[in-house]
Input
Amino acid sequence: MSLKVDVEKKESCRRELKIEVPAQAVSTKFEEAYKQIAKVASLPGFRAGRVPQDLVKKHYQQDARKLVIEDLLPEYYIKALEKVKFNPVQDPQFSDIEMEEGQGLCFKASLDVRPKFKLGTYTGLKVKPNKAEVKKEEIDRVLENVQQQVTTYKQIKDRPARKGDTFTCKFVFLIDGKSVRRQRKATFPLEDSVFGPDFAANIEGLSIGQKKEFDVTLPENFQPKEQAGKKAHFKIELKEIREKQIPELNDELAQKVSPGKNMDEIRRNIEKDMLVNKKREVNNDLERQIVEALIKNNEFDVPQSIIDGETENLVKNAKMRLMYQGFSKEQVELQEDKLREQMRSNAETNVKSMFIMSEIINKEGIKVSDDELDQRIKTMAQESRQKEEDVRKYLGGKNMMENLRWEETNKKTMDFLIEKSSKS
Output
């Protein structure tokens, strides 16, 4: 009897294989298993490795059975794939395993296969490019941030607190008559406070040493959450006032932030850097339009297992970004289900575009040469300020070289699609 494979279509991309392995193959594998076990088998009255074969078979049948299944399932699963010419996109799920010594082995393998579809139109796609330009106001905002970074504070003693100042105070605040927080020295900017705008308004006009009591309603986003929106009673004593010393936008400031350059040169550098980012944003938007058009022109189902896997990758990345932004692990975990729901649509788009791009790459014969890959590695080394050999070692150690080649092939294909698109 030869290998027998029956195929049942469960969903558009889901298949179940019923695989029957010949009895001879099972018997041969059992003999190999018993020989392997006999080398280390130990029973009372016998030294390890000296147990007779008939006793090994009697006492170690379940161990042998486990070894046989571990060997035969993947071996005959691969042979079954070759026989039915399937191209799976993930590892199989084995079930309904039936096997007895001296008989055949029967099991089921559930798997997802690549979707089959007729590639739709992919050249001449209609896209609308945005214009990459930097406005004067945008440069001004960057320079304002530069001013804030080098701003100093001067201690003030001869006037009351006013907008723009930073003040230090001793305070206690109460909710429902109970003390909630007490600090001997706390510093706040006058125009912005965690206690809300009413808090700052009550400080404005106070002089050093002056005391004041007042009520404010805490903001709805106040932490801890159970205190948000509640009325709080404050007792304040102003200890210190500091005035912002914002430097002028002139060549003197330019020398401080970038020695050897004047303000005009800094403006030009800011504009240059911003234009690079704007062009990147324009290209990203073009890519988004291309992907949307490709998916619209190619309707097909994709394996759910791949969507699930991509969803988890996106959720993992989103959680890492949130934690990098300062959210606690507990806060991030509370958002996990919401993130998963948000990411599922993106995951399906990513998976569909991957299959479509793969078809275009094959049809157009788009490839990335070794020289092109070398150039990409050199660029990565320059951007990360690392030695080229260190980057190569890292990519090789992580088995990431082929992933990089795929990324570059994908990028090359996207450039081709943008070049062949119809721009309005």
Notes: The chain is about 50% helix and 20% strand.
